[in-house]
TrEMBL record:
<dbReference type="InterPro" id="IPR002035">
    <property type="entry name" value="VWF_A"/>
</dbReference>
<feature type="domain" description="VWFA">
    <location>
        <begin position="280"/>
        <end position="448"/>
    </location>
</feature>
<feature type="coiled-coil region">
    <location>
        <begin position="333"/>
        <end position="360"/>
    </location>
</feature>
<dbReference type="Pfam" id="PF13768">
    <property type="entry name" value="VWA_3"/>
</dbReference>
<dbReference type="Pfam" id="PF08487">
    <property type="entry name" value="VIT"/>
</dbReference>
<dbReference type="InterPro" id="IPR036465">
    <property type="entry name" value="vWFA_dom_sf"/>
</dbReference>
<protein>
    <recommendedName>
        <fullName>VIT domain-containing protein</fullName>
    </recommendedName>
</protein>
<dbReference type="InterPro" id="IPR013694">
    <property type="entry name" value="VIT"/>
</dbReference>
<keyword id="KW-0175">Coiled coil</keyword>
<feature type="domain" description="VIT">
    <location>
        <begin position="1"/>
        <end position="131"/>
    </location>
</feature>
Length: 733
C-alpha cells in the first residue's frame, strides 16, 4: 500500500515538487526571470517527475541547470529529437537527466522532465528567461508570472495530441511560491501594483530609480501573479546597445553588439483629432464551455460597451463560436439605431453553450467575406485562449493581415498569451488581457481608439550610422503604429560601434551602452528572429528541404535560446546504474481555474445614440415616478417642476446628483438631457474619461447635427443644476 505522507496529488500520489522560488529583475521595460524549482523524492523508489507549465508567449528561455547534492549540471540546447533520445538513453543507463522543451502546439507551454530521482534525493532546477513588458492603457508596464494553466482544446483533425495538463484546485496545489522583484530604470519609479498582496515597495536610492518588492506570505495558486510598474516620463523613446559576447565569433549574432530601439510615436494633433467615422467592425466572441459563468458575462459586457461606442456611418457584424459558429447578420450591416438594438438584444441572450473552442473555422469564414469599399476591416476577438492549434490560428491571421487589423482580448486567468499576443501582432492590432478585478472599460476603449486611428502605411526605418558600421535588422517589418503604443526594433551592428546617434524616421535617439555580460538584448533579438523563421518554416512546410529549420536550430544552439525545434538537455554522468524496471512517473499538478473570476463592471443601462447615459428624473408626487427609458423628465413635465430628485445611472451605480426646487427647464427636452449628460461627464467624471470619451463625441455630434438654438442656454442651466463650471467649448459644442 502506498504511504500517503508528504506532498500528494488529487489521486493521493506523492508529488516530488516542494517549492518554487522566482526572482524578477526589471530593467526599464525588459525583465529577466530566474525560477528555482525544488524537488524531493520521499518515496522508496526512483521517480520521473513531469511538470507542464506556462510561460509568457514571447519569453526567451536562455538557461536551464540542475543542482543535485554538490553537483551542478548545466543544460545544453540541442535539436529536439536528439535531446529526447539522449534523455531516454540516460535514464535507461541509470543516469539522472533533465529535459526542458517547448510545446509543439503553443510557444507559451513548456514541459520539464526530472528523470531518475533516487529515493530520498533532492534536486533544484534553475530556469531563466527574458521577456519584454507590455504597455497598458494607463501607461503601466505589465509583467505576468503565469500560475494558471487551463487544458487546451484540440479541434478535430488538428495535428498533435494537444497539451496534457494535470490540474488541481488552488487549495490542493501541493507546493509553495516565493516571489521577489527588483526594478531599476533611468526614470523614477512611481509605483508598483499587483493583483496579489505585496509587501510595501522599498526604494533603494534617493532618486527612486531602484526599488524592490516581494509577494506577501500566504499566496494561493488561484491566479497569475501580475505586476504593474509605473515610471515617470514613460513615453520617452530609447535605444540600448549591448556589447557582444567576448568568447563568441566576431560577425556572429552573439559576438556583435545588438541594439534594441523602443519607439513611442506621437502623431500631430490634426491627425489624432480626425478619428475615423467609417470602418467594418467584426466581433468574434468565444462561447465555448470553458467561457462559462462570469467569463462569458465579462466578454459580453466588453462587447456591449464597444457596440454602444461605434461611430455613425460604420458597418458591423457579430460572430460567436464553439464547436460550431454563428453570426447575427448574414453579412456586415450599416450601424444604425435599429441594427444596434437588434445586436444588443442578441448579445444579451448569448451563453457559453457552443461546446469546444474551434476558432479556426469562423476566422476562415470571416476572411472569405468580401471587404466593403472604403470601410477598413477591424476584427475584435474575445476568447479565453484555450485552444491547442495556436500556431495555425496565428498563421491564418498573418496570411490575411493585408485586409484587416486584429484586436484581441484574453478573458480570464490562464488565457494563452501566445494566442492573444500573436493574433494582435500578426494582425497589426493590439492585445489586452482582462483578469481578476481588472477595470475593463479603459482597456476596451483604448483598443477601440486604436482601431479608429488612421492606418499608418509605408513605415520605414532609416539608420544613420558611420560608414564602417553596418546593420542587420532582426525584427520583422513594423506593420502597425499607434499613438502612445510602444514598438520595438532589434538589430545586429557589425563594425566599430561607439557613441553614435541613431536616426529613427524623424526621431533622434542617443544610444545608451550597456557593457554587461547577461546578454539580455541579444537573447531577445535572437528570440525575435527565431519566431520569424519558425513562421516562415510553417508557411513553406513541404516546399523546402528543411533549410529554414536548420537555421532555427543553428541560431537556437548558438544563442542558447529555446525554439520549437530544440530542447534543453542535462545529464548527470557521475552516477549510473542500469534500471531494471520502468520508472514511476509523477505528474506535477498546475492550478486550473474552476471558479468565476470577474465581477460585472459594465452598465446594463440603455445607451442610445440620442442619450449616451440614461438619466432618471423623479418627480415628488404621491408616489415616485421613473421616466421611461430614453426620455427625460421634460417630455413629461413641460411646466415648472416644483421639486426634482435628479439621479444618474452610470455603469452599475446610481448617483443622486442634487435635489432642486422651482426650476424652469430649457424648452428642448432632448437637447437639455444630452447637454446635461455631457456636463456631468466633463465636470464630475473626468477620472473615467477614457471610458466615456467616444460616447461624448457621439453625443456632441448629435447636437451639432440638429443645430439646436438653445445649447448655450442648456449649458448655463446645466452648470447651475450640477454645480459645475464647464465651458461650452470643452463639451465639443
Amino acid at each position: 500500500m502506498m504511504n500517503c505522507c508528504g506532498l500528494l496529488t488529487l489521486q493521493k500520489e506523492p508529488v516530488p515538487l516542494k517549492s518554487i522560488e522566482v526572482e524578477l529583475e526589471v530593467r526599464d521595460h525588459v525583465a529577466t526571470v530566474v525560477s528555482t524549482l525544488n524537488y524531493e523524492n520521499k518515496e522508496d523508489k526512483p521517480l520521473e517527475a513531469v511538470f507542464v507549465f506556462p510561460l509568457p508567449g514571447d519569453a526567451a528561455v536562455c538557461h536551464f541547470s540542475a543542482q543535485v547534492g554538490q553537483t551542478q549540471i548545466v543544460a545544453e540546447v540541442k535539436e529536439k529529437q536528439k535531446a529526447r533520445e539522449e534523455y531516454d538513453d540516460a535514464l535507461s543507463s541509470g543516469q539522472q537527466a533533465f529535459l526542458l522543451e517547448e510545446s509543439d502546439e503553443s510557444p507559451d507551454i513548456f514541459s520539464l522532465r526530472v528523470g531518475s530521482l533516487p529515493p530520498g534525493e533532492s534536486a533544484s532546477i534553475r530556469l531563466e528567461y527574458v521577456t519584454e513588458l507590455a504597455v497598458q492603457a494607463d501607461d503601466g508596464l505589465r509583467f505576468c508570472l503565469p500560475a494558471v494553466l487551463n487544458p487546451r482544446y484540440q479541434p478535430q483533425g488538428s495535428e498533435g495530441a494537444g497539451v496534457q495538463v494535470t490540474s488541481a484546485p488552488a487549495s490542493l496545489v501541493p507546493y509553495s511560491l516565493c516571489f521577489s522583484a527588483r526594478v531599476s530604470s533611468p526614470r523614477p519609479i512611481s509605483k508598483v501594483e499587483s493583483n496579489c498582496s505585496l509587501e510595501p515597495l522599498q526604494y533603494l536610492n534617493t532618486d527612486q530609480t531602484q526599488a524592490t518588492v516581494k509577494l506577501a506570505a500566504g499566496h494561493k495558486f488561484d491566479r497569475d501573479v501580475e505586476l504593474l510598474i509605473y515610471y515617470k516620463d514613460a513615453h520617452q523613446p530609447t535605444a540600448v546597445v549591448e556589447a557582444g559576447q567576448a568568447s563568441a565569433e566576431p560577425g556572429s549574432l552573439m559576438g556583435d553588439p545588438v541594439v534594441m530601439v523602443s519607439l513611442y510615436p506621437e502623431f500631430p494633433q490634426s491627425v489624432m483629432s480626425s478619428m475615423a467615422s467609417s470602418g467594418e467592425f467584426v466581433f468574434l466572441l468565444d462561447r465555448s464551455g470553458s467561457m462559462s459563468n462570469t467569463r462569458i458575462s465579462s466578454a459580453k459586457d466588453t462587447l456591449l460597451l464597444l457596440l454602444k461606442s461605434l461611430p455613425m456611418g460604420c458597418y458591423f457584424n457579430i460572430y460567436s463560436f464553439g464547436s460550431s459558429y454563428e453570426h447575427i447578420f448574414s453579412k456586415s450591416v450599416e450601424y444604425s439605431q435599429k441594427t444596434m438594438e437588434e445586436a444588443l438584444k442578441k448579445v444579451e441572450e448569448m451563453e457559453a453553450d457552443l461546446g469546444g473552442t474551434e476558432i479556426l473555422e469562423p476566422l476562415k469564414h470571416i476572411y472569405s467575406q468580401p471587404c466593403i469599399q472604403n470601410q477598413p476591416r477591424q476584427l475584435f476577438v474575445f476568447t479565453d485562449g484555450e485552444v491547442g492549434n495556436t500556431k495555425e490560428v496565428i498563421d491564418l491571421v498573418k496570411k490575411n493581415s493585408g485586409s484587416h487589423r486584429c484586436f484581441s482580448f484574453g478573458i480570464g486567468e490562464g488565457a494563452s498569451s501566445a494566442l492573444i499576443n500573436g493574433m494582435a501582432k500578426e494582425g497589426g492590432g493590439h492585445a489586452q488581457f482582462i483578469t481578476g478585478t481588472d477595470r475593463m472599460q479603459p482597456k476596451v476603449m483604448q483598443s477601440l481608439r486604436f482601431a479608429l486611428q488612421p492606418a499608418v502605411v509605408d513605415i520605414s526605418v532609416t539608420w544613420d550610422l558611420p560608414k564602417e558600421v553596418s546593420v542587420t535588422v532582426l525584427s520583422p517589418p513594423i506593420t502597425a503604429l499607434f499613438q502612445g503604443q510602444r514598438s520595438l526594433i532589434y538589430a545586429q551592428l557589425t563594425g566599430q560601434v561607439f557613441d553614435d546617434i541613431l536616426t529613427m524616421t524623424s526621431i533622434r535617439i542617443l544610444c545608451v551602452f550597456l557593457l554587461i555580460c547577461r546578454l539580455t538584448v541579444h537573447r531577445l533579438g535572437a528570440r525575435t528572429l527565431i519566431r520569424s523563421l519558425e513562421m516562415e518554416e510553417r508557411e513553406h512546410r513541404g516546399q523546402q528541404d528543411g533549410g529554414v529549420k536548420e537555421k532555427v536550430v543553428q541560431l537556437s544552439v548558438q544563442s542558447g535560446v529555446s525554439s520549437s525545434f530544440t530542447a534543453f538537455i542535462a545529464v548527470n554522468k557521475d552516477n549510473g546504474e542500469a534500471i531494471q524496471a520502468p520508472l514511476v512517473q509523477r505528474n506535477i499538478p498546475m492550478f486550473q481555474h474552476m471558479v468565476p473570476y470577474l465581477g460585472e463592471f459594465f452598465s446594463k443601462c440603455k445607451i442610445t445614440m440620442r442619450n449616451p447615459v440614461q438619466f432618471i428624473f423623479m418627480r415628488k408626487t404621491n408616489k415616485i415616478k421613473k421616466c421611461p427609458t430614453n426620455t427625460s423628465i421634460l417630455s413629461m413635465n413641460r411646466g415648472k417642476i416644483k421639486e426634482l430628485n435628479l439621479k444618474i445611472r452610470y455603469k452599475v451605480e446610481s448617483f443622486v446628483l442634487k435635489t432642486v426646487q422651482n426650476i424652469n427647464p430649457p424648452p428642448n427636452s432632448e437637447v437639455w438631457a444630452t447637454t446635461l449628460t455631457l456636463i456631468w461627464l466633463h465636470g464630475l467624471r473626468m477620472d473615467a474619461k477614457s471610458e466615456w470619451e467616444l460616447l461624448a463625441v457621439k453625443a456632441a455630434s448629435w447636437l451639432h447635427a440638429r443645430n439646436a438654438p438653445c445649447v448655450s442656454e442648456c449649458v448655463e442651466a446645466g452648470n447651475v443644476l450640477l454645480g459645475c463650471s464647464v465651458k461650452k467649448e470643452a463639451l465639443g459644442l
